[in-house]
């Protein structure tokens, strides 16, 4: 049965030769995944932290159903619609400063590509033809497409195999110490003329290793970007929409990037949607009497009305319950309950920020065994590299969260 099940499926980041029994999900509700055989799993990662209000939220489902009756999709070239108008206005209102110009796409990687393209074309439109490079950081993750692979961590990332075929970008260390800040400034002094933008994940570098840094780093980067006439792009695909405790990570440093990227939780985990949002001054750089100065991008399914209506419902939900206290409570509970893991020899570090809990091991010898043991504890947790992490829905109950932290401790200590 399991062999034939996988006959025509190719899973992501999976060695298919040894993959023989993926679980089959049948229904989801809140923080529970019910499998085809009736087993109920508590979900610790909310489907790559997209389902921030829990699965199958009736309010989101209701919005989508209504939109489905009216208009599931229409091209966005030269014609617009109410769900996109509402969503872009709402995002402009929620985002800090004048981050007001919203470009929709259907995946995070593409939204990052659009941000990079926007930054480069912004300078090209001014005839600054040398400013074509992106500066990004070790430990970073920005997607799986060719252009985004080139700005991920080149060694630790999932893409080192490709490093010789990718375009060369500048990747350096996050300036977290005085010495590194000096090195950073020296680097910009030398290279600023060829750099279009600094691209980073603010506060939490996610899929690159769940690494945290302080808001001061963001203020420093804003100041450096201004000083050297370089755009600052925040990839908030992971951190945006409440995950780190503030609605956007940039709120914690009280700064405004030139371009911000949202996806993952944007639609409440129901439909694929992403947005690249620029400040007015960036948008203005594309206004011209030359057609060729227009932003040269346009995905077929951009601003899909169903996806926009999910996002509108999801953003409304943030106003209907005190998500910020929920995240605070999750943070406190994760801090308290994951602390026990620190005493285990195999554990290198335990860290928590907002609704993100990380247990970093020295190394994971048998990943499949670890995954199977977690499944036996009836939890859905997906470790990667040497990291076991939790990014639960903001609506998870105290008991469900305890079940997750206990499963991690029990599995790691067995
Ligand atoms: C997930 C993620 C991406 C890529 O998004 P996809 O929708 O998988 O293409 C990019 N940047 C960050 C920070 C992410 O977490």
UniProtKB/TrEMBL annotation:
Keywords, alphabetical: Aminotransferase, Biotin biosynthesis, Cytoplasm, Pyridoxal phosphate, S-adenosyl-L-methionine, Transferase
Binding, substrate: 48, 141, 264, 298, 382
Site (described: Participates in the substrate recognition with KAPA and in a stacking interaction with the adenine ring of SAM): 13
Residue(s) carrying N6-(pyridoxal phosphate)lysine: 264
Chief location: cytoplasm
Positions bound to pyridoxal 5'-phosphate: 108-109, 235, 299-300
Transferase listed as a keyword: yes
Entry-linked PROSITE patterns: AA_TRANSFER_CLASS_3
GO molecular function, one term: adenosylmethionine-8-amino-7-oxononanoate transaminase activity
Catalytic activity field: (8S)-8-amino-7-oxononanoate + S-adenosyl-L-methionine = S-adenosyl-4-methylsulfanyl-2-oxobutanoate + (7R,8S)-7,8-diammoniononanoate
GO annotation (BP), single: biotin biosynthetic process
Pathway(s) per entry: Cofactor biosynthesis; biotin biosynthesis; 7,8-diaminononanoate from 8-amino-7-oxononanoate (SAM route): step 1/1
NCBIfam families (alphabetical): bioA (TIGR00508), PRK05964.1 (NF004624)
HAMAP family on file: BioA (MF_00834)
Family under the similarity heading: Belongs to the class-III pyridoxal-phosphate-dependent aminotransferase family. BioA subfamily.
Self-association and partners: Homodimer.
Record's protein name: Adenosylmethionine-8-amino-7-oxononanoate aminotransferase
Organism this protein belongs to: Commensalibacter intestini
Gene: bioA
